Amino acid sequence: MVEHSETHLDRVFHALADPTRRQLLERLAAGERKVGELAEPFSMSLAAVSKHLRVLEQAGLVERRIEGRAHFCRLQPEPLAAAEQWLSFYEGFWSQRLNALEAALQAAPGDQPPEEGKADGRR
Predict the structure, then answer these.
(1) Cα dist. 49→42, 102, 110, 121 in Å?
(2) Which of 1, 11, 3, 7 is closest to 80 using CA atoms?
């Protein structure tokens, strides 16, 4: 189970690592769209946009529905929750570490920064 989760999380972060894919997700946040509509603002081929969409599908971030010749895509936000949960752990970790550092610096007895212009810090 853990290996499956790690692989899934790897796919999500891989998908989010590309700015084009992030822009596609932003556009899909407004609602379901045809692949052609998604491709309009990009200066790349429809095939290139489809490859980006496949990466997003493999990560579980996009679901594709086919009606005749039209391909519709919609955002699947659930995998983003797993990524946010992973990031939240490290946000808490670093916040705790930085708070401890701040407390240690404030508790340091009478330390003063060295005077300007003196390399060794003596007065």
Answers:
(1) 8, 47, 60, 59
(2) 11
Q: Are 59 and 15 in contact (CB under 8 A)?
A: yes
Stated pTM of the model: 0.70
**Strand partners of residue 71:** 66
Q: Calculate helix-pair angle for 2-16, 19-28, nearest 10 degrees.
A: 90
Could you read off the pLDDT of 27-74 as tens digits, one per residue?
A: 999 999 999 999 999 999 999 999 999 999 999 999 999 999 999 999
Terminal-to-terminal C-alpha distance of the chain = 62
3-state secondary structure of 72: strand
* Cα–Cα distance, 40 to 50 (Å, whole number): 12
Tokens of 4: 């499956």
Residue-wise pLDDT tens digits, 9-29? 999 999 999 999 999 999 999
Q: Give the integer Cα–Cα distance in Å for 37 and 112.
A: 61
Least Cα distance to 15 among 85, 75, 91 occurs for: 75
